[in-house]
Design brief:
With about 950 residues, the protein is an alpha/beta fold. The strands form seven sheets. It has an eight-stranded mixed sheet. Strands 27-28-29-30-31-32-33-34 form an eight-stranded parallel beta barrel, surrounded by six helices. A six-stranded antiparallel sheet has the order 2-1-3-8-6-7, sandwiched between helices. Helix 19 (about 535-550) packs across helix 35 and helix 34 (about 910-920) crosses helix 35 (about 935-950). The longest helix has about 45 residues, at about 620-665.
């Protein structure tokens, strides 16, 4: 159990007049209300509100979250004045109930429950039946005339107190109970009588003494103190800490503790307990939903020891209580104007509500409920938009694991791309590409590279042992809409053996595995999937969201198929087309390699030729005669690589042109932003280490063969050596800061020219056929305005040449990707050349922090865990640092070019918190993966509504 207390900061002791405890239930009034969640927690505020609304609620009192914060900040002590206030509150409860805690003849029993400001169901601890001891159990027997009930309550109390307060393993009690029932030949708890429970209590007390060295406490006030503090401690148990992290709940708010008079659902056949929702939390259907058990306590419903009945059956079993429950819960839904998750107990025919809170629901249910409640006039359309978490929409867009399936994960990684996938494990991209044509496969890699793009495309999903949320695998998988689990550190991939291991579990190639990209879990075997369910209300809901937002939403898409998916999800253009992904196709890669091999050779020879010709100037006749043969030789030698370079570009031109045509056709009437070649050239070549090994093996085989002449090197070896030489020449110690982006286009302008020609030839061709085309050419990695100017000259020259030749004019823009901090700082100058900015926040974050995003996964989780950073800056935009650069660049850029169009195309474009920032910073659009387009649309709408409410809307 986690005991760290540093997350709850020390505070000065409140004045003695501070109120630590709020009472509820006397004369149907309460000292708190629903607006006091921060102080009373959700449970305490709900109990107070129900009491004030006239609902039958067992009386009690709530210890505030301030006390919990004090407890952690002051070495688990309580503030001065608290203990007398608690004694007074307990005495008040005893007066209201007409009973005393733990009294021997007529005992008051209480529950002690947690309740934070934000709902954390099941994450913290509860103690029921507190106040029972060897004397009060006899008093409870006398009052109820039901000894079986009394001794059952006592054994439950010892069991719960022992595990929650004293730290004994819950499993040990459960196992002992199971053995006890076997001894008694009892199938269920219901088969045990009063004497059995009396005997079991004695055995449980013996267990406690054996494990703790002390007798089970008989003092009711000591029981209350220990239980209260145990609930405070449960704020920092492992599951609560993890839940807060997953749901971004602050660690420093603490939990309240509600002490409430017990009512008993296990008093007999006219008693029951249950939980329910005012609407179906899975589908959103407006139907009464829940379960109950007769003659049981609350934990029995959720523990699975008995099968609960559908709540509809309660109407036949206890019609009066059922009618009251329906009336009260419908009233609560109208009062809170949202779906309620409630707990109830029926004690000897009398109904009590123990809790109400806003019900958690699936995305499908959330959308349906929001739309239907707006239709019913219960909430407004704007409120409906705010009721759905944007990230929850992922559930509507991807296949998912069958929630009814009982599955055990073998490993857990990062939930990099949502949805579920089932397939046979394969360990290289070529195998995935080939086998994926006819069977379902999952590509398993230590990490992926751009070379794996074809295998990723063919696979059902991707699993990697390393990498983060913005790793290659994660980014590409999200763009494809493929489920992906990244950074599964327990997965040890053995490429040579074509298998992976997790502990003692071995998964070989062709073994079936399943992954859940929504949770990061990995399973063996074929997990059952259910298709994504998009209800009819989804379209209506998104129309409302679109009407509310200001930000446009585009998609990152590289091929027509992705663009079609993006349009289907409501994208209003392409914000980033990464042309390098087109180069990895099998029919193009050989020409790309030829271009890379020939370009530097041609460039080197051109430099020598230029230098030789320069020497002619002012040379005497003898020098001229000496230079002319050298010049002729260089000209002749240049023809080879220069021709190969031009041939490669000529082969790539029509292929790129066809790609762009497809994108323009799909995005008819919407802008398409195309980024010129960005990655370093070595990414298109084999890995250096692999080539070194291959060449060494080939040399050894050639040199060791009998009768082979070492003068006649095999052509295959010569070709491999030449390729290795080129790989060595292109090798960089820090390629992310090396020869890439606009630097490639400046040193090899033929590449930029070829891409620009393909873009404009495609644009003019589709424009002739009536397609409305809006190309935007984006130059990447600009740090100095002169770099952009150099490349813009090439683009604009080619554009004019193509339009003059075709007789077709298209409107276009040339802009840049702001991803180098210097470009952001000098944005006013850059805007003099750029007609638009698009923030590449992946690289901008990397260069601002000085983090390598491919390696930061080794330490960023600890940074977040230790609160050095509030979250992973590659997942959610760092507003204070990177955001400050964005705001500066927007302001200065628009100063240099009024009306400058500004967007974002990094992975942050699909993160709701980052979209909120983009709205407030005045950006014009965000761009994200196709499957995150609906998320961004909703996040943009919510940002606009919040801005209007705060009086700072950008409209």
């Amino acid at each position: 159990m986690t005991t760290t207390t540093g997350s709850l900061a020390a505070r000065p002791e409140p004045a003695h007049s501070t109120k630590y405890i709020y009472f509820f239930g006397e004369n149907h009034t309460a000292e708190g209300n629903a607006r006091m969640k921060a102080l009373l927690g959700g449970k305490g505020a709900g109990l107070a509100e129900m009491t004030n609304a006239g609902v039958s609620v067992p009386p009690g009192f709530t210890v505030t979250t301030e006390v919990c914060r004090w407890y952690y900040a002051h070495e688990r002590t309580l503030p001065t004045g608290f203990e007398p206030e608690q004694r007074e509150s307990l005495a008040r409860l005893e007066r209201v109930m007409g009973r005393r805690l733990g009294h021997a003849q007529d005992p008051l029993l209480v529950s002690v429950r947690s309740g934070a400001m934000f709902s954390m169901p099941g994450m913290m601890d509860t103690v029921l039946n507190l106040g029972l001891n060897d004397r009060s159990v006899e008093g409870l027997t006398l009052r109820t005339r039901n000894p079986r009930f009394a001794w059952d309550c006592y054994r439950r109390f010892i069991q719960m107190f022992g595990s929650v307060v004293l730290g004994l393993e819950k499993h040990d009690f459960e196992e002992h109970l199971a053995q006890f029932k076997r001894r008694k030949r009892a199938k269920t708890d219901q088969d045990l009588d009063a004497d059995d429970f009396r005997e079991l209590v004695a055995e449980f007390k013996a267990m406690v003494k054996k494990r703790t060295g002390q007798e089970f406490t008989q003092d009711p006030l000591a029981q209350l103190t220990l239980a209260r503090d145990a609930v405070f401690r449960s704020w920092n148990n492992d599951r609560a800490v993890f839940y807060r992290k997953q749901n971004r709940i602050p660690d420093d708010i603490g939990t309240a503790v509600s002490v409430q008079a017990m009512v008993f659902g296990n008093l007999g056949e006219r008693s029951a307990t249950g939980v329910g929702f005012t609407r179906d939390p899975a589908t959103g259907e407006n139907r009464f939903y829940g379960e109950y058990l007769e003659n049981a306590q609350g934990e029995d419903v959720v523990a699975g020891v008995r099968t609960p009945h559908p709540i509809a059956d309660l109407e036949r079993a206890m019609p009066q209580a059922y009618g009251q429950l329906r009336e009260i819960t419908q009233r609560l839904e109208k009062h809170y104007r949202d779906v309620q998750d409630f707990e109830f107990t029926i004690e000897d025919g009398k109904l009590y509500l123990l809790q109400t809170r806003t019900g958690k629901r699936t995305a499908q249910a959330a959308v349906r409920i929001a739309v239907e409640m707006a239709g019913e006039g219960l909430i407004t359309r704007d409120e409906a938009i705010m009721r759905v978490e944007p990230v929850a929409l992922d559930q509507l867009l991807h296949p998912r694991l069958d929630p009814a399936a009982k599955l055990t994960a073998i490993a857990t990684g990062l939930a990099a791309s949502p949805g579920a996938a089932v397939g046979k494990a394969v360990f290289d991209a070529d195998a995935a590409a080939e086998r994926g044509k006819s069977e379902k496969v999952i590509l398993v890699r230590k990490e992926t590279t751009p070379d794996d793009i074809h295998g990723m495309d063919a696979a059902q999903g991707i699993l990697t042992a390393t990498g983060g949320m913005t790793s290659h695998a994660a980014v590409v998988a999200r763009g494809m809409g493929k489920p992906c689990v990244c950074g599964a550190g327990d997965v040890r991939v053995d490429d040579a053996a074509r298998r992976f291991a997790v502990g003692d579990v071995i998964v070989k190639e062709n073994d079936w595995i399943s992954i859940d990209g929504s949770t990061g879990r990995v399973f063996t075997g074929q997990a059952p999937l259910v298709p994504a369910e998009v209800s009819g209300e989804f379209g209506v809901f998104m129309e409302w969201a679109d009407a509310a937002r200001r930000l446009k939403v585009r998609s990152n898409a590289d091929i027509p198929r992705d663009a079609k998916q993006a349009r289907a999800f409501g994208a209003e253009g392409i914000g980033l087309c990464r042309t390098e992904h087109m180069f990895f196709a099998q029919d193009r890669l050989p020409w790309v390699v030829q271009m890379i091999m020939a370009a530097p050779q041609a460039k080197a020879l051109e430099a020598k030729l230029k230098a030789a010709k320069a020497q002619l100037e002012g040379a005497d006749a003898a020098a001229v005669r000496a230079l002319k043969p050298e010049i002729a030789r260089l000209q002749d030698e240049l023809k080879g690589p220069q021709g190969e370079y031009r041939q490669a570009l000529a082969k790539l031109l029509p292929l790129q042109r066809a790609d762009f045509k497809g994108l323009f056709e799909v995005m008819d009437g919407y802008p398409v932003t195309i980024r010129t070649l960005d990655p370093p050239l070595h990414e298109f070549l084999p890995k250096r280490e692999e080539m070194m090994s291959e060449v060494a093996v080939m040399r050894a085989q050639w040199g060791g063969g009998k009768g082979r002449s070492k003068a006649r090197k095999p052509a295959k070896l010569a070709k491999a050596e030449a390729l290795l030489e080129r790989v060595e020449a292109l090798h960089e110690f820090n390629p992310m800061l090396g020869h890439r982006g606009c630097r490639l286009g400046i040193t090899y302008p033929g590449i930029t020219e070829m891409q620009a020609r393909a873009i404009f030839e495609a644009a003019c061709d589709v424009a002739k056929r009536g397609v409305s085309v809006i190309p935007e050419i984006m130059i990447p990695l600009v740090g100095h305005v002169a770099e952009l100017k150099d490349q813009a000259v090439v683009v604009r020259r080619v554009a004019e040449e193509v339009m003059a030749k075709t007789g077709v004019r298209v409107e276009y823009m040339v802009g840049t990707m702001i991803e180098v901090p210097r470009a952001a700082i000098t944005a006013e100058q850059v805007a003099g050349e750029a007609e638009f900015f698009s923030f590449g926040t992946n690289d901008l974050t990397q260069l601002t922090f000085g983090f390598s995003r491919d390696d930061a996964g080794k330490f960023l989780p600890e940074y977040v865990e230790r609160k050095i950073l509030p979250q992973d800056p590659f997942v959610s935009l760092d507003v204070e640092g990177v955001g400050a650069l964005v705001e500066w660049a927007v302001e200065r850029g628009r100063k240099g070019r009024p009306g400058l169009k500004v967007g974002i195309c990094g992975e942050h474009g699909g993160d709701p918190a980052s979209v909120q920032f983009c709205h407030s910073a005045g950006l014009d659009y965000v761009s994200c993966s196709p499957f995150r387009v609906p998320i961004a649309r909703l996040a943009a709408a919510q940002a606009a509504l919040q801005g209007r409410a705060a009086g700072s809307d950008q409209r």
